[in-house]
Amino acid sequence: MADPDEFDAFYKDARDRLLAQTYLLTGDLPAARSAVREAFVVGWHHWTKVNARGEPEAEVRPRAWANASRRATTRPWHREKDIDPEVARTLEVLGDLDWAPRRMLVASEVARLPLAEASREVGVTVEDGAQHLAVGRAELAEHRGLTTPEEVEGALSAVTATLVDVRWPRPSIVRRAGQRRRRVHTVGGVALACLALVVSGAVVHDADGTATSLARSVDREAPTETPVLGPVPELAESFTTAQLLPTSEIELLSPDSAWTSTTSDNTSGDGLVLPCQQSRYADAEGLAGFVSAHRATTPEGASLRAFQASELSRDPESATATLQSWASWFGGCDEPRAQVLGTYDVTGVGDTALAFTVRVGGPPQSLVTAAIARTGDITTVVVADAASTESDAREPVVELLASAVDRVCESEAGGACSTSPALEPRLPVPTGDAPTLLDPVDLPPVPGIELPWSGTRPTTPEDNPAATVCDRAGFTDGFTDPTTRTFVIPDAGLPATFGLAQTSGRLSDQQVADGFVGTIAERLADCVEQDLVTSAEVIGSGDDASGRMIAWELEVRVDEESTVRVLMGVARAGNLVTQVAFVPAGDADLDDDTFVALVQRARERLLIADPAG
User: Fold this and answer.
1) Going along 253-338, which residue ranges are E strands?
2) pLDDT of residue 72
3) Beta sheet of 378-386, edge-to-edge order
4) Strand 547-557 with 499-506, pairing
5) What is the pLDDT, as a whole number, of residue 217?
6) What's the pLDDT at 354?
7) pLDDT < 50 positions in the chain
8) What is the pLDDT of residue 182?
9) Rg of the chain over CA atoms, in angstroms?
10) DSSP letter (8 states) at residue 398
């Protein structure tokens, strides 16, 4: 029988070391922590074998690294907020390293593995491992201004020293998660076959009403002290999969299709079930949660998926934060080539509700329609994911959301029920580190290009990269907090001239900001009048109490046979102004309507930063 005391001691001894390694590999503390937790869950599942081999850390470490590797290749490298600048710079350099040199550097300098063992774990020969390690050390030393091996080691140690306050789930929580995993796997070959079918969406089963506490998940942080829950355990006990929408209601999305469904407490795998989902649960201190996944093929042969997630929080305030987390996931969707097309307030459903439409790149492209509601302490999410981007599933998804709310609103944990659901367009949710600038989720796909946009970090501009030779707009004199960034599509084989640039800033008042927009329009008109090889056509404009926007198509004749085309727009909201410019390359182009919509989105980003407009 596995000895829990031995495992608990091992867990407490090794978890911080493995966290240091996975954090340096990912630059993402939540992802690193989750990778280590998942590795220990599997470690307890196989503890008899792991412990018998005499070096349990050597058994668990590769899985933690593998978990981190998956997250590092599917999630953007990012740093924690308010991080020490020197630590941030080290993480920045590591993030720019290729995967093999980064792993060899961590294996050698942090995990203290001999070269042969480190190379084996990285999956390269000893010769290649030595070369990767040398590259990693040299790059870190050069970009951090380090001159000795001790300084390289010190820079890495400074990063891991920031992890001392990380909270971990209790060993018993990890073991319970491992026991659940063992129960799934010990049923034998039949269970494995069923599991494969569940993953492929080919098993239909009804909710069994089993309640599961999120406190037993490895993605939950253990509270520092036992909270006084009062009636909460009874609430968690009454929150079951029976409260999820049955397949018979989901089928209303496509009544003529054959649907298959699965339901779970989402404690297995990486927990990322729904499109755009970024963590196993949105409430880190939640009491219970479930997900259901449904698949169908329409009579026309199109693929259709639907999902529901439901979480029980400790109080309405926590549930509100849970809704906001889900909203940030859909509003800042990190699926490949995702573009948020619409954001909506939903009235008549629960206490608070929102909806989103997100186009996700392919091929093939799909359209994700998501609706989120809070009723009392419960947050529920309903999603339709259609292979056809022409589908408009907003109303049926909101109707399903209303039905989901009505199944729980009259429970002790519930709040407002549903009346007459309605959608009302609203501003996008804030995303990214620069609220006045566009984010990759705002950018449309470029025809013929199947790779995602990538943006530079927002910076203070010395020159305005969005200015044209005609308008010469500067964001220096009179501006406070000017910010700029550019967007390109790496590895698409496009010329260096291709890309999109944006600069935003704040002026002293609305009148001055409106004058700035007017000056750009006047300079373009003068440029066309004085330069016979330049043309500028207004392709879109708008004006209301909150501001204005104008977009142009400029063409500059380079010689008798070629011209350069630039799309440029400027917008104002209150005393904030922004300029956006796009330079196409051959067929990698945006049509006028798409660009005008992008400038309008840029103006909406200004309104988010300054709602008074």
Assistant:
1) 258-264, 288-297, 303-312
2) 52
3) 258-264, 288-297, 303-312, 378-386, 366-375, 352-360, 339-349, 418-425
4) unpaired
5) 31
6) 97
7) 73-76, 180-181, 183-233
8) 52
9) 27
10) H
Contact 575, 509 (CB under 8 A): yes
Find, among 212, 254, 217, the residue nearest to 233 by Cα. 212
Predicted confidence at residue 577, as pLDDT, reads 96
Residue with tokens 């996008």: 428
Q: How far apart are the first and last CA of the chain?
A: 67
Amino acid at 468: T
C-beta separation of 470 from 536 below 8 A? yes
From the list 485, 491, 308, 265, the residue with the least C-alpha distance to 402 is 308
- Our CA angle for 298, 301, 302, nearest 5°, is 70
Torsion angles phi and psi, residue 56, rounded to 5:
-60, -35
Q: Which residues contact 392 (CB under 8 A, 6 or more apart)?
A: none
Per the structure block, which two tokens stand in for 416? Answer: 């407002």
* Nearest by Cα to 574 from 516, 603, 613, 517: 613
- Residue 487 to residue 343: CA distance in whole angstroms: 23
Nearest-5° angle of CA 325, CA 328, CA 331?
Answer: 150
pLDDT tens column, 174-196: 776 566 445 433 332 222 222 22
The answer to whether the beta carbons of residues 467 and 581 sit under 8 Å apart is: yes
pLDDT of res. 186:
36
Interatomic CA distance for residues 458 and 484, integer angstroms: 5
Q: How confident is the model at residue 188, as a pLDDT?
A: 27
Please report, for residues 60, 94, 439, the alpha-carbon distance to residue 102 in angstroms, rounded to integers and kept in the order given: 19, 6, 28
Q: How far apart are the C-alpha atoms of 131 and 525, rounded to whole Å? A: 58
Helix (H) or strand (E) holding 383: strand 378-386
Instruction: Give one DSSP letter per residue of 66-135, joined into a string.
Output: HHHHHHHHHS-----TT--HHHHHHHHHHHHS-HHHHHHHHHHHTS---HHHHHHHHTS-HHHHHHHHHH
